[in-house]
Amino acid sequence: MITTLAMLTVFYGIVIGILYSTQQTAKPTFNEYAVGGRSYGPWYVAMSYVNSWWPGATFIAFFGLAAGAGVFGLYGLAYSILGVTFMYLMATRAWRWGAKFNLRTQPDLLGMRYGSGAVKFIASVIGVVSLFPWVVLGMQALGSLFEIAGDGAWSLTACLVIGLAVIVIRQFWTVKMGMRGLIMTDMFQGVVAYVVSAVVCVVMLTGVGDSPISFADLGRVGDKVLTLPGDGGAYGPWYIASLIFTGVVGSLCWPTSFQRIYTASSVRAVKAGTVRTILISGVFYTLLMLVGIAGTRVPEVINDPQNGWFTLLDQFGGTWMLGLAVVIVFAASMGHIDGAVQVCGLQIANDIINSGKRKFTDSQLTTIAKTSMVIFMALAAVVAYLTFNMSRLQLLAQISYQGIVQLGVPLFLGIFWRWGNKWGAISGMVSGFTVAGVLTLIYPDDIRVLGSITGGIIGFTVNLAVFLIVSAITSQSAAERIRVAQLFEAAKRSIPQADRPQPSSPASVLEVDPAS
Known about the structure:
Layout: H1 2-22, H2 30-35, H3 42-53, H4 61-69, H5 75-100, H6 106-114, H7 117-149, H8 156-177, H9 179-205, H10 239-253, H11 255-263, H12 267-294, H13 299-303, H14 308-352, H15 362-386, H16 394-404, H17 408-416, H18 422-442, H19 455-474, H20 478-490
Helix pairs in contact: 1-9, 1-14, 3-9, 3-11, 3-12, 3-14, 4-12, 5-10, 5-12, 6-7, 7-8, 7-14, 7-15, 7-16, 7-18, 8-9, 8-14, 8-15, 9-12, 9-14, 10-16, 14-15, 16-18, 16-19, 18-19
């Protein structure tokens, strides 16, 4: 226990040291808090992307999926690679609009594109609600690692409280430094969580020393481990396709991903960052899933697949390797939770509270964001406690995707297509999110009578149909067509630094009606 806690303390101390050494002397503006001055290169963008993509729960819930159900766990690889690839295609227009019109959040972009404060408000609510399960998973991951770090001496409540306290202390620096603090620490945390873990996976799979697994074990796993849901059994043929589709679409809709686009110094930095993200994510997640699948031959992993990562490293190298396993999960958890809570606090302040006719000052918005973060984390801690022993934790992640994909229709069509209007966007998001929410409440996993399609797919289909029909009925006015044409024209040109709006500029130079 002492060794593991000492390793956690050293790691945490380094993170605080990075924050302390890179802080700015001047108090950051709300714009600096939101996008870090739009000044970061591709490696910073890439590691920040990866931190927002793979939380600490990846080593517990998704590792447990691979250790408990085999190749099923690899579905995350398919949607993550495809999702980042599509993000590459979105980068130019999203970044240029963000730089030209001083956009701070994803709902800022949607509100500007459709000229509607209501679109911005609804999109922000969907984003915040959908991110909540991921923060819950992150809190559970922290609870699990402190249970292990304490060698079972602490109660579950104590472990969750300790995890919450650690994040609250880390949030002090996030509030003080804003997005700049996240980006700087994401680099260090990402190297530990994804690069070091990948190296550990390779070493174990090569069978070095006392490794309990090896590449040879992958050829000896049972047939059940190599079977996907829908290939016989209880699940229908559309289950995997539904998960991958919602994964690809949803991965492009996460508010945390857009926040990373806006922190980049240029379109080139965003695109180069996405290429690096594909490399890091692909190698890391593939190796982790292979370790999980090989672990299906270890009895202790079979008995407790969600703690399989810790079990294997403990068997491989004893206390020191167990300590490293805990530090790796801690690094991934802290980066993801911190980023998600920061973005949610920002959106609540910038897009929900500040969406009416009354506009708040930077100082007031920062206070609102701080308060929102505290409440958000407290709620997540309570839900994490109540669902801690849930048998399939990845269901929380799947449920969140059913909601976030509802942003896909107005987002993708709004970025790549000049047609559609605010009435279509509002009607589509509300109807799609409602349908997805009701169906997911009734069928949290899949809808067997429809071939195991998920509620999010049906909601997305309703969303798309309503968007197209309502937009066709209401149509765009002549003034709206001109406004949208100007937006698309602006996205064709690079933005010189001198022409970018100052931090005190409004979120958009094109008028947005907060009441519609």
